[in-house]
Amino acid sequence: MSYLIGCVIAETALFSGIAGPQEARTFEFFSVLTAVLSYWLVRSGMTRWLEDPGLTIVQMLVGETMAAIAYCQFHEFRGAMLALDVAVISFGIFNLNRCRQWMMSLYALVTMGGVMLWQSLEAPDRFPPTVEAVHFLILCTLQVVVALLGAEFSELRARLRSRKNALEEALTRIQDLANRDSLTGLYNRRYTQELMDHHISLQGRSGRAFSLALIDLDHFKAVNDTHGHATGDQVLQIFASEARRVTRESDILARWGGEEFIIVMPDTLAEGARLLVDRLRSSLNELRIETLEPPLQIKFSAGITEHRPGESSDVALTRADRALYAAKVAGRHRTVVDLG
User: Fold this and answer.
1) What is the CA radius of gyration of the chain?
2) What is d(CA 2, CA 91) in angstroms, rounded to the nearest whole number?
3) Are residues 59 and 41 in contact, defined by beta-carbon separation less than 8 angstroms?
4) Residue 335 φ then ψ, to 5°
5) Is the peptide bond before 294 cis (omega within 30 degrees of 0)?
6) pLDDT in tens, 230-280
7) Which end of the chain, N or C, is less packed with Cβ atoms under 10 Å?
8) What is the pTM of this model?
9) Residue 13 CA from chain centroid, whole number
Protein backbone atom coordinates (compact mmCIF):
# COMPACT_ATOMS: atom_id res chain seq x y z
CA MET A 1 0.00 0.00 0.00
CA SER A 2 2.88 2.37 0.71
CA TYR A 3 4.35 1.68 -2.72
CA LEU A 4 0.93 2.21 -4.28
CA ILE A 5 0.63 5.58 -2.54
CA GLY A 6 4.09 6.45 -3.83
CA CYS A 7 3.08 5.56 -7.38
CA VAL A 8 -0.07 7.72 -7.11
CA ILE A 9 2.05 10.64 -5.91
CA ALA A 10 4.48 10.11 -8.82
CA GLU A 11 1.63 10.05 -11.35
CA THR A 12 0.13 13.18 -9.82
CA ALA A 13 3.50 14.95 -10.01
CA LEU A 14 3.90 13.87 -13.63
CA PHE A 15 0.37 14.97 -14.56
CA SER A 16 0.91 18.36 -12.87
CA GLY A 17 4.17 18.88 -14.71
CA ILE A 18 6.16 19.06 -11.51
CA ALA A 19 8.17 15.91 -12.23
CA GLY A 20 9.59 14.69 -15.51
CA PRO A 21 8.61 11.37 -17.10
CA GLN A 22 12.00 9.80 -16.41
CA GLU A 23 11.92 10.55 -12.67
CA ALA A 24 8.29 9.45 -12.26
CA ARG A 25 8.58 6.26 -14.31
CA THR A 26 11.87 5.27 -12.64
CA PHE A 27 10.34 5.67 -9.21
CA GLU A 28 7.21 3.73 -10.22
CA PHE A 29 9.29 0.95 -11.79
CA PHE A 30 11.35 0.37 -8.66
CA SER A 31 8.25 0.65 -6.44
CA VAL A 32 6.41 -2.05 -8.39
CA LEU A 33 9.54 -4.20 -8.69
CA THR A 34 10.22 -4.04 -4.95
CA ALA A 35 6.61 -4.79 -4.02
CA VAL A 36 6.31 -7.76 -6.41
CA LEU A 37 9.74 -9.17 -5.57
CA SER A 38 9.23 -8.99 -1.80
CA TYR A 39 5.74 -10.49 -2.09
CA TRP A 40 7.02 -13.35 -4.26
CA LEU A 41 9.95 -14.12 -1.95
CA VAL A 42 7.69 -14.32 1.12
CA ARG A 43 4.80 -16.21 -0.50
CA SER A 44 7.07 -18.73 -2.23
CA GLY A 45 8.48 -19.81 1.14
CA MET A 46 12.06 -19.01 0.18
CA THR A 47 12.47 -16.82 3.28
CA ARG A 48 11.16 -19.31 5.86
CA TRP A 49 14.66 -20.21 7.06
CA LEU A 50 15.46 -16.59 7.86
CA GLU A 51 15.07 -15.08 11.31
CA ASP A 52 12.73 -12.53 9.74
CA PRO A 53 10.78 -14.56 7.13
CA GLY A 54 8.55 -11.58 6.31
CA LEU A 55 11.62 -9.51 5.30
CA THR A 56 10.24 -6.75 7.50
CA ILE A 57 13.52 -4.90 8.08
CA VAL A 58 14.68 -5.32 4.47
CA GLN A 59 11.41 -3.95 3.11
CA MET A 60 11.52 -1.03 5.57
CA LEU A 61 15.10 -0.15 4.63
CA VAL A 62 14.22 -0.16 0.93
CA GLY A 63 11.00 1.79 1.54
CA GLU A 64 12.74 4.44 3.64
CA THR A 65 15.47 4.85 1.01
CA MET A 66 12.94 5.21 -1.80
CA ALA A 67 10.93 7.74 0.24
CA ALA A 68 14.09 9.81 0.70
CA ILE A 69 14.80 9.64 -3.06
CA ALA A 70 11.21 10.62 -3.86
CA TYR A 71 11.54 13.57 -1.47
CA CYS A 72 14.22 14.96 -3.78
CA GLN A 73 12.50 14.19 -7.07
CA PHE A 74 9.02 15.43 -6.21
CA HIS A 75 9.98 18.50 -4.24
CA GLU A 76 6.61 20.21 -4.70
CA PHE A 77 4.96 17.17 -3.15
CA ARG A 78 7.68 16.45 -0.64
CA GLY A 79 5.33 17.01 2.32
CA ALA A 80 3.44 13.92 1.23
CA MET A 81 6.67 11.95 1.48
CA LEU A 82 6.72 12.57 5.22
CA ALA A 83 3.45 10.63 5.48
CA LEU A 84 4.88 7.92 3.22
CA ASP A 85 7.96 7.76 5.43
CA VAL A 86 5.80 7.25 8.54
CA ALA A 87 3.73 4.63 6.72
CA VAL A 88 6.91 2.66 6.05
CA ILE A 89 7.91 2.82 9.73
CA SER A 90 4.40 1.73 10.75
CA PHE A 91 4.90 -1.40 8.64
CA GLY A 92 7.09 -2.91 11.36
CA ILE A 93 5.08 -1.82 14.36
CA PHE A 94 3.58 -5.29 14.86
CA ASN A 95 6.74 -7.28 14.08
CA LEU A 96 9.79 -5.49 15.44
CA ASN A 97 10.94 -5.41 19.02
CA ARG A 98 11.63 -2.15 20.87
CA CYS A 99 15.31 -1.94 19.89
CA ARG A 100 14.76 -2.59 16.17
CA GLN A 101 11.82 -0.20 16.06
CA TRP A 102 13.99 2.62 17.41
CA MET A 103 16.81 1.68 15.03
CA MET A 104 14.48 1.91 12.02
CA SER A 105 13.14 5.26 13.23
CA LEU A 106 16.73 6.49 13.59
CA TYR A 107 17.52 5.29 10.05
CA ALA A 108 14.49 7.19 8.76
CA LEU A 109 15.57 10.36 10.54
CA VAL A 110 19.15 10.05 9.27
CA THR A 111 18.22 9.33 5.62
CA MET A 112 15.37 11.82 5.31
CA GLY A 113 17.10 14.41 7.50
CA GLY A 114 20.29 14.01 5.47
CA VAL A 115 18.36 14.56 2.24
CA MET A 116 16.68 17.67 3.70
CA LEU A 117 20.03 19.12 4.79
CA TRP A 118 21.73 18.29 1.50
CA GLN A 119 18.96 19.77 -0.65
CA SER A 120 18.63 22.89 1.50
CA LEU A 121 22.35 23.51 0.91
CA GLU A 122 22.40 22.53 -2.79
CA ALA A 123 19.06 24.02 -3.90
CA PRO A 124 17.84 26.53 -1.30
CA ASP A 125 15.41 28.03 -3.81
CA ARG A 126 13.49 24.78 -4.09
CA PHE A 127 14.24 23.53 -0.55
CA PRO A 128 14.23 26.62 1.74
CA PRO A 129 16.20 25.85 4.91
CA THR A 130 13.45 27.15 7.19
CA VAL A 131 10.85 24.96 5.50
CA GLU A 132 13.15 21.95 5.69
CA ALA A 133 13.75 22.62 9.38
CA VAL A 134 9.99 22.58 9.97
CA HIS A 135 9.66 19.41 7.90
CA PHE A 136 12.41 17.75 9.93
CA LEU A 137 10.75 18.78 13.18
CA ILE A 138 7.47 17.26 11.98
CA LEU A 139 9.31 14.12 10.91
CA CYS A 140 11.00 13.82 14.31
CA THR A 141 7.67 14.17 16.11
CA LEU A 142 5.97 11.57 13.94
CA GLN A 143 8.87 9.13 14.15
CA VAL A 144 9.06 9.38 17.94
CA VAL A 145 5.31 8.79 18.25
CA VAL A 146 5.43 5.75 15.94
CA ALA A 147 8.53 4.38 17.71
CA LEU A 148 6.84 4.74 21.11
CA LEU A 149 3.75 2.97 19.81
CA GLY A 150 5.95 0.23 18.36
CA ALA A 151 7.70 -0.19 21.70
CA GLU A 152 4.35 -0.50 23.46
CA PHE A 153 3.19 -3.08 20.94
CA SER A 154 6.46 -4.98 21.41
CA GLU A 155 5.93 -5.18 25.17
CA LEU A 156 2.31 -6.15 24.67
CA ARG A 157 3.35 -8.95 22.29
CA ALA A 158 5.89 -10.19 24.82
CA ARG A 159 3.27 -10.25 27.59
CA LEU A 160 0.74 -11.98 25.38
CA ARG A 161 3.33 -14.54 24.27
CA SER A 162 4.25 -15.22 27.90
CA ARG A 163 0.60 -15.63 28.87
CA LYS A 164 -0.02 -17.86 25.85
CA ASN A 165 2.89 -20.13 26.82
CA ALA A 166 1.66 -20.26 30.42
CA LEU A 167 -1.85 -21.14 29.25
CA GLU A 168 -0.52 -23.86 26.94
CA GLU A 169 1.51 -25.36 29.79
CA ALA A 170 -1.50 -25.22 32.09
CA LEU A 171 -3.69 -26.81 29.43
CA THR A 172 -1.13 -29.59 28.95
CA ARG A 173 -1.07 -30.25 32.69
CA ILE A 174 -4.88 -30.25 32.84
CA GLN A 175 -5.07 -32.67 29.90
CA ASP A 176 -2.53 -34.96 31.57
CA LEU A 177 -4.53 -34.89 34.79
CA ALA A 178 -7.72 -35.64 32.86
CA ASN A 179 -6.24 -38.36 30.64
CA ARG A 180 -3.69 -40.10 32.85
CA ASP A 181 -3.71 -42.22 35.97
CA SER A 182 -1.99 -40.28 38.76
CA LEU A 183 -0.22 -43.32 40.27
CA THR A 184 1.26 -45.01 37.19
CA GLY A 185 1.31 -42.16 34.68
CA LEU A 186 -0.49 -44.37 32.14
CA TYR A 187 -3.64 -43.39 30.29
CA ASN A 188 -6.84 -43.80 32.28
CA ARG A 189 -9.91 -45.78 31.28
CA ARG A 190 -11.97 -42.86 29.97
CA TYR A 191 -9.28 -41.58 27.62
CA THR A 192 -8.36 -45.08 26.47
CA GLN A 193 -11.99 -45.66 25.50
CA GLU A 194 -11.82 -42.53 23.34
CA LEU A 195 -8.59 -43.75 21.70
CA MET A 196 -10.12 -47.16 21.02
CA ASP A 197 -13.14 -45.56 19.36
CA HIS A 198 -10.73 -43.51 17.25
CA HIS A 199 -8.90 -46.66 16.12
CA ILE A 200 -12.22 -48.30 15.33
CA SER A 201 -13.03 -45.34 13.09
CA LEU A 202 -9.64 -45.66 11.38
CA GLN A 203 -10.18 -49.39 10.96
CA GLY A 204 -13.46 -48.71 9.19
CA ARG A 205 -11.59 -46.66 6.58
CA SER A 206 -8.37 -48.65 6.25
CA GLY A 207 -9.50 -52.17 7.17
CA ARG A 208 -6.43 -52.66 9.39
CA ALA A 209 -6.91 -54.94 12.37
CA PHE A 210 -5.93 -54.17 15.92
CA SER A 211 -5.72 -56.37 18.98
CA LEU A 212 -6.16 -55.69 22.64
CA ALA A 213 -4.98 -57.43 25.78
CA LEU A 214 -6.64 -57.19 29.18
CA ILE A 215 -4.15 -57.86 31.98
CA ASP A 216 -4.86 -58.56 35.64
CA LEU A 217 -2.10 -58.80 38.26
CA ASP A 218 -2.27 -62.14 40.04
CA HIS A 219 -3.04 -62.19 43.78
CA PHE A 220 -2.81 -58.44 44.04
CA LYS A 221 -5.28 -58.31 46.94
CA ALA A 222 -3.01 -60.63 48.90
CA VAL A 223 -0.09 -58.27 48.28
CA ASN A 224 -2.07 -55.37 49.73
CA ASP A 225 -3.30 -57.41 52.68
CA THR A 226 0.14 -58.86 53.48
CA HIS A 227 2.52 -56.01 52.70
CA GLY A 228 0.30 -52.92 52.73
CA HIS A 229 -1.05 -50.55 50.13
CA ALA A 230 2.29 -48.78 49.72
CA THR A 231 3.80 -52.02 48.43
CA GLY A 232 0.75 -52.53 46.25
CA ASP A 233 1.29 -49.09 44.72
CA GLN A 234 4.94 -49.97 44.13
CA VAL A 235 3.90 -53.17 42.32
CA LEU A 236 1.56 -51.19 40.06
CA GLN A 237 4.29 -48.68 39.25
CA ILE A 238 6.86 -51.39 38.49
CA PHE A 239 4.43 -53.17 36.20
CA ALA A 240 3.56 -49.91 34.40
CA SER A 241 7.25 -49.08 33.95
CA GLU A 242 8.09 -52.48 32.46
CA ALA A 243 4.99 -52.47 30.26
CA ARG A 244 5.92 -49.02 28.97
CA ARG A 245 9.42 -50.29 28.19
CA VAL A 246 8.38 -53.35 26.14
CA THR A 247 5.45 -51.86 24.26
CA ARG A 248 5.81 -49.94 21.03
CA GLU A 249 5.32 -46.20 20.73
CA SER A 250 2.17 -46.78 18.70
CA ASP A 251 0.63 -49.07 21.36
CA ILE A 252 -1.88 -47.68 23.83
CA LEU A 253 -1.04 -48.68 27.39
CA ALA A 254 -3.50 -47.81 30.15
CA ARG A 255 -4.56 -48.62 33.66
CA TRP A 256 -8.03 -50.03 33.21
CA GLY A 257 -8.93 -49.99 36.88
CA GLY A 258 -7.50 -51.31 40.16
CA GLU A 259 -4.93 -53.95 39.25
CA GLU A 260 -6.21 -54.28 35.67
CA PHE A 261 -4.38 -52.90 32.65
CA ILE A 262 -5.08 -52.84 28.93
CA ILE A 263 -2.81 -52.73 25.89
CA VAL A 264 -4.31 -51.73 22.53
CA MET A 265 -2.02 -52.71 19.66
CA PRO A 266 -2.79 -51.09 16.28
CA ASP A 267 -2.02 -53.02 13.08
CA THR A 268 -1.45 -56.17 15.13
CA LEU A 269 -3.06 -59.60 14.93
CA ALA A 270 -3.65 -61.82 17.95
CA GLU A 271 -0.42 -63.75 17.51
CA GLY A 272 1.61 -60.54 17.51
CA ALA A 273 -0.24 -59.42 20.62
CA ARG A 274 0.60 -62.69 22.34
CA LEU A 275 4.30 -62.23 21.55
CA LEU A 276 4.25 -58.77 23.12
CA VAL A 277 2.49 -60.05 26.25
CA ASP A 278 4.96 -62.94 26.50
CA ARG A 279 7.83 -60.46 26.23
CA LEU A 280 6.33 -58.45 29.08
CA ARG A 281 5.94 -61.59 31.20
CA SER A 282 9.56 -62.60 30.57
CA SER A 283 10.71 -59.13 31.55
CA LEU A 284 8.77 -59.27 34.82
CA ASN A 285 10.05 -62.78 35.57
CA GLU A 286 13.52 -61.29 35.92
CA LEU A 287 12.37 -58.73 38.50
CA ARG A 288 11.95 -59.13 42.24
CA ILE A 289 11.03 -56.67 44.96
CA GLU A 290 14.03 -57.50 47.10
CA THR A 291 12.96 -55.34 50.05
CA LEU A 292 10.30 -57.88 50.94
CA GLU A 293 10.78 -61.23 52.61
CA PRO A 294 10.50 -63.42 50.69
CA PRO A 295 11.24 -61.30 47.57
CA LEU A 296 8.05 -60.62 45.61
CA GLN A 297 7.69 -61.52 41.92
CA ILE A 298 5.04 -59.80 39.82
CA LYS A 299 2.83 -62.21 37.87
CA PHE A 300 -0.23 -61.57 35.73
CA SER A 301 -2.96 -63.20 33.67
CA ALA A 302 -3.93 -61.88 30.24
CA GLY A 303 -6.81 -62.19 27.81
CA ILE A 304 -6.24 -61.31 24.15
CA THR A 305 -8.63 -60.77 21.27
CA GLU A 306 -8.80 -59.06 17.89
CA HIS A 307 -11.26 -56.33 17.15
CA ARG A 308 -13.54 -57.26 14.29
CA PRO A 309 -14.52 -54.66 11.67
CA GLY A 310 -17.92 -53.21 12.38
CA GLU A 311 -18.20 -54.20 16.03
CA SER A 312 -18.13 -51.82 18.98
CA SER A 313 -15.32 -51.61 21.46
CA ASP A 314 -17.59 -53.04 24.18
CA VAL A 315 -18.01 -56.29 22.22
CA ALA A 316 -14.24 -56.71 21.81
CA LEU A 317 -13.67 -55.84 25.47
CA THR A 318 -16.23 -58.44 26.55
CA ARG A 319 -14.39 -61.06 24.52
CA ALA A 320 -11.02 -60.03 26.00
CA ASP A 321 -12.51 -60.11 29.50
CA ARG A 322 -13.81 -63.60 28.82
CA ALA A 323 -10.33 -64.69 27.76
CA LEU A 324 -8.87 -63.12 30.92
CA TYR A 325 -11.34 -65.00 33.08
CA ALA A 326 -10.40 -68.25 31.32
CA ALA A 327 -6.72 -67.55 32.08
CA LYS A 328 -7.53 -67.11 35.77
CA VAL A 329 -9.63 -70.28 35.90
CA ALA A 330 -6.82 -72.22 34.23
CA GLY A 331 -4.43 -71.37 37.06
CA ARG A 332 -3.35 -67.73 36.44
CA HIS A 333 0.06 -66.51 35.22
CA ARG A 334 -0.85 -67.34 31.62
CA THR A 335 -2.33 -65.90 28.43
CA VAL A 336 -5.53 -66.96 26.71
CA VAL A 337 -6.57 -65.84 23.22
CA ASP A 338 -10.29 -65.63 22.37
CA LEU A 339 -11.14 -64.87 18.76
CA GLY A 340 -14.80 -65.73 19.27
Assistant:
1) 36
2) 9
3) no
4) -120, 135
5) yes
6) 999 999 999 999 999 999 999 999 999 999 999 999 989 999 999 999 999
7) N
8) 0.56
9) 49
